[in-house]
Fold:
Amino acid sequence: MADTTATHATAGPEGTKRDFLFLATGAGLAVGVGAVAWPFVASMAPDAATVAAGAPLDVDLSPIQDGQIVNVFWRGKLIFVRKLTEKEVTDMKAVPLDQMIDPAPFSARVKAGHDQWLVSYGNCTHLGCVPIGHSGNFEGWACPCHGSQFDAVGRVRRGPAPTNLPIPPYAFSSDTKLTIGEEGGKAAA
Structure:
């Protein structure tokens, strides 16, 4: 009996091969579980394109000339950014509301202090076709599919489109920078 006690007494503080194998197996198992779980957890996060599609979009306005229309995409939707000429601003302010299919004053289509900038979705409100800029009878867009015509601030003037080109949420962070997806300085939901 004395020999058995001596063996246990020396093995206790230093550990045994069995203790080492138990710890090594546990550590290997933890690394293996982590290696398998990481791709699964990472696959639940949205990809970069999805994140970018919902994020606000900054547009540099400085290179856009008077009368020019720039097409950008935000959340997968076509957006028209148009710099109106002084004549277009004057003409659009003078249009009587009773001549419109979906009456909207000029001031409801642009931001105060930035009368020369129109920002609107770029699809016809009839069936979603893309209207052609600088065409039609009203200084704006004409839809090639069914003949709807919009004026320079996106108000429908000739049908079958029932409503004006919608306005996305946007804000001016400076005179030369526009942020689509924000209204009044905070992100749109």
User: Anything to note?
Assistant: The two ends are 78 Å apart (CA to CA). Residues 100 and 157 are 5 Å apart (CA to CA). The chain is about 30% helix and 25% strand. The chain has two domains: 2-43, 51-187.
